[in-house]
Fold this protein.
Amino acid sequence: MPTYTFHCNPANNGCDHQFEIYILYSEYDQKVSTIRCPKCEQLLPVERIIDSPHIFVPKTVGYFCDQNSDKYSLDHKEHLKNEHYKYRTEGEEKELPNNMQRIKKIDTKQRKKDPRKVKKAKNG
């Protein structure tokens, strides 16, 4: 919802008060004539001030993660990382439903030696 800034003009017997109002675009034309100054409650001296739009940028989860991780020591970060990946190294594999099989993981060293992944020579 956009924010509009208004000014109670002292030239029209106003109180020189500046205030903001949130109005939908679709309702602006209907409500602009009924806006009153919240301080002196006069209707006529209120004028709209054209200013730059307010931009709100919400903080993401990643921002808070980075902010919190800066508070931890390197030892604590390593401990949390090990706890997170513990399930990969410990325990038995869970039983799969019928008609399903596990995908074989390829070691990164094997992937480099795979003959199907030969780089094409440049034609010179």
About this structure: The chain has a mean pLDDT of 76.
